[in-house]
Amino acid sequence: MKTMQERDPRYDILFEPVRIGPLTARNRFYQVPHCNGMGYLRPKTLAAMRGMKAEGGWAVVCTEEVEIHPTSDNGSAAEGRLWDDGDIPALAAMTEAVHHHGALAGIELVHGGYSNANHYSRIPPIAPSVSSVNSYDPVQARAMNKSDIRNFRKWHRQAVLRAIQAEFDLVYVYAGHNLTLLMHFLSRRFNQRSDEYGGSLENRVRLFREVLEETREVAGDRCAVAVRFAVDELLGPKGITSENEGREVIEMLAELPDLWDVNISDWENDSATSRFEKEGYQESYISFVKSLTSKPVVGVGRYTSPDAMVSLIQRGVVDMIGAARPSIADPFLPKKIEEGRLDEIRECIGCNICVAGDWLSVPMRCTQNPTMGEEWRRGWHPENIEPRKSRDGVLVVGAGPAGLECSVALGKRGYRVVLAEASEELGGRVSLESRLPGLSEWIRVRDHRLLLLEKMESVSIYQGSELSPSDIIEFSSEDSFGFSHVFIAAGSIWRKDGLGREHREPIPGLEQMEVMTPDDLMNGSPAEGKVVIFDDDHYYMGGILAEKLRLEGYEVLLVTPAPDISTWTHQTMEQGRIQARLLELGAELAPQKSLTSVHRGEVEVSCVFTGRLSRHACETLVLVTERLPRDGLYHDLTALGSELEIASIRTLECIGDCLAPGTIAAAVHSGHLAARGFESENNEEVPFLRERIAI
Fold first, then answer.
1. Which of these, 580, 537, 581, lies nearest to 559 by C-alpha position?
2. Cβ-count burial of 221 within 10 angstroms (0-12 exposed, 13-18 middle, 19+ buried)?
3. 83 close to 120: Cβ distance less than 8 angstroms
4. Where are the domains of the chain?
5. Do domains 393-491+630-677 and 495-627 have the same CATH topology?
6. To 10 degrees, what angle do helices 401-413 and 664-677 make?
7. Which pLDDT value is given to residue 478?
8. Ramachandran region of residue 683, left (φ > 0), alpha (ψ -120 to 50) or beta?
9. Which of 65, 289, 389, 584 pairs as cysteine with 679 (C-beta 3.0–4.6 A)?
């Protein structure tokens, strides 16, 4: 859009330079280290993504965690690696991309200690004391002796030197998220040593201090030294707390680093979803840090509001606004504030679909930003897009996430767009799902795009406009709306027959029961009596409907074949919170059970392992299984054949859930992909670039 205005003077403070040791950051926007599913496997993809952040105005752009030695091998995850000199070029590609746009590049060096099972290196993990690894792997870490400690310090110094060779400006000493050897030494839970590295806090801090001092010595005046430290583990007296040992560690080391990057532990707490934590939720834990050090402090809290950012600075909570997820949702967030384009900020919704990419070791994606992860392989830019190739008009049917995104992207290209929505409310599934408990911020997917569309003179929006095939033929004429291309984004509906992963045939007896779907509940239909939910979808929907119904006073039994509730939300790091909330609300949970049959007043479930049957009272059955694409209009139009040619309709395509039901992020990406590829020739068998291993 780039409807540039003057920056509001209220935000001038955000653009003040900040001194970090021997360096100066151009403003107060700091992209903290975050994982991305790219790492050492996809260095070009990674460099382009980080470079985009620098172009968008972030003053400091950091890596993800970068392993310093094969005794810290995170195997299945695509993180950074700096094991030897051969790893330098891949990381140097990132610093080059970041420096090209005038930002500082930071590297988060890590040794994972007992957090890594070392599947690839097959070297036994190391830890302060004998410890099982932090997973279900049949692996134990061995206790480090003095020689191991000396070696670790040497490996860290070598990694600092290599980071300098790769031209990083800022080097991290990392003790956070319960993911690093240094934090394990700090923890009374994992450090049971009786030598000078164990026991008292002073002793447990010793290795942290030694590594920090040695990093400063090696870095000299060539780069700054940052500390990333979790001041609270949210474990009360069992762990580090901001009132006690978290505060004491900062007091002990206050002036040693050039910058403090402070947060809470573990990662699930630090990156909690908006369903459970709102913007600024970490402030109460980190607010004391600036009072103990003269060095700049960075904090995070999924900040998207410029006013909240200014408040943090003015109240002396932090010196720089740290961000991971907000910088993913909008790499150009700083520039938009600087240029007075606040209404164009693409605000993070806190869904953590980005985190899922890391857990799955694929380039991360984002619900709000469909270009994330596509910067190199598809050449997508979050703000710039190829202009139109013709004066043809385009009809988009359906104003859900796919239709809205497609219309926005086509509008940015300069096409004349007609967006028709059958209902009176725009937003499709986003409007419905954002009313579910904890998901209010998801409405940003709709509102951001509507705000952009309202500014586009070439886009016309029609609500309450259900179109038939004959309507589309009629309206395609030049004396009517005059479009030659049709994208159908009619969404999907939840099935009522129970077909899904578990059942490939309809569940027997459904005619004997009041059967509802998520669509029914989200549209306001009331349930009756005791409710049984059968969740064969395994993402958030089954669990959140159980929460909604319990909050409304219903007795609820949630049945799922999976090992736990909403099991895919392990990928978004909220499964534990979801299951805990349902238990606290008094929902009855039946994991590892399948819905076998339905009878009047009851359902029959079976153990997925033994087949053992049990019966449960039920008056309303809610099926959360598969969805059916609402593609009837597409098939009806296709059947018209020559009539489409006569009407000069040259493009007919389904997008989003109408093509293949999936996540909201997938629907947004589908809409964007359709708009980007519109009237473009792509004859490649693989429609994107791949990073190949040279042999």
1. 537
2. exposed
3. no
4. 9-359, 393-491+630-677, 495-627
5. no
6. 30
7. 81
8. alpha
9. 389
Are 191 and 185 in contact by the 8 Å Cβ rule? The answer is: yes
Nearest to 532 by CA among 438, 582, 595: 595
Report residue 485 as tokens. Answer: 């291309």
659-663 long-range contacts, Cβ below 8 Å, gap at least 24? 659/629, 659/631, 660/629, 661/492, 661/626, 661/627, 661/628, 661/629, 663/353, 663/367, 663/539
Structure tokens at 670: 């589908």
Catalytic residue among 177, 485, 503, 672: 177
C-alpha 106 chain-centroid distance? 21
Dist CA 590 CA 229 (whole Å): 39
**C-beta separation of 34 from 79 below 8 A:** no
The CATH architecture of the domain made up of 9-359 is Alpha-Beta Barrel (3.20)
* Known catalytic membership, residue 11: no
Q: What angle do CA 573, 669, 65 make, to 5 degrees?
A: 40
The catalytic position among 30, 114, 172, 174 is: 174
Model confidence at 344: pLDDT above 70: yes
Provide the pLDDT confidence category of residue 5 given band limits of 50, 70 and 90: confident
pLDDT, tens digit (0-9, with 9 covering 90-100), for 92-139:
999 999 999 999 999 999 999 999 999 999 999 999 999 999 888 899
Spatial distance between the Cα atoms of 156 and 263, rounded to a whole number of angstroms: 22
For residue 561, what are its two tokens? 């074949």
User: By CB neighbour count within 10 A (0-12 exposed, 13-18 middle, 19+ buried), where does 479 fall?
Assistant: exposed
Q: Is 536 a catalytic residue?
A: no
The fold adopted by the segment(s) 495-627 is FAD/NAD(P)-binding domain (3.50.50)
Question: For the chain, how many residues are written?
Answer: 695
DSSP 153: H
- Residue given tokens 């590829």 in the structure block: 677
Which helix or strand (DSSP H or E) is residue 559 part of? strand 556-560
Alpha-carbon distance of 137 to 390, in angstroms, equals: 57
Which entry of 30, 34, 35, 520 is annotated as an active-site residue?
35
pLDDT higher than threshold 70 for residue 1: no
Tell me if residue 503 is catalytic: no
**Distance between CA 481 and CA 475 in Å, rounded?**
5
Per-residue pLDDT, 694? 79
Taking the C-alpha atoms of residue 88 and residue 90, their distance in angstroms, rounded to an integer, is 6
- Tokens representing 160 are 């600092």
Task: Please state, in angstroms and as integers, the Cα–Cα distance from residue 357 to each residue in 360, 406, 571, following that order.
Answer: 5, 23, 8
**How far apart are the C-alpha atoms of 344 and 243, rounded to whole Å?**
39
Q: At what angle do helices 575-584 and 541-551 cross, to 10 degrees?
A: 20
485 noted as active-site residue:
no
φ, ψ at 690 (rounded to 5°) = -125, 150
The pLDDT mean for the chain works out to: 96
For 12-24, what is the mean pLDDT?
98
CB 517 within 8 A of CB 495: yes
Burial of 606 per CB tally in 10 Å (0-12, 13-18, 19+): middle
Higher pLDDT residue, 6 or 325? 325
User: 393-491+630-677 adopts what CATH topology?
Assistant: Rossmann fold (3.40.50)
Pairwise CA distance, residues 626 & 624, whole Å: 7
Give residue 477's pLDDT.
Answer: 86
Kindly report the backbone phi and psi dihedral angles of residue 227, in degrees, each rounded to the nearest multiple of 5, phi listed first: -115, 130
pTM greater than 0.85: yes
Residue 206 DSSP SS3: helix
Query: What does the pLDDT read at residue 567?
Result: 98
Residue 8 has pLDDT above 70, yes or no: yes
Name the active-site residue from 270, 520, 631, 657: 270
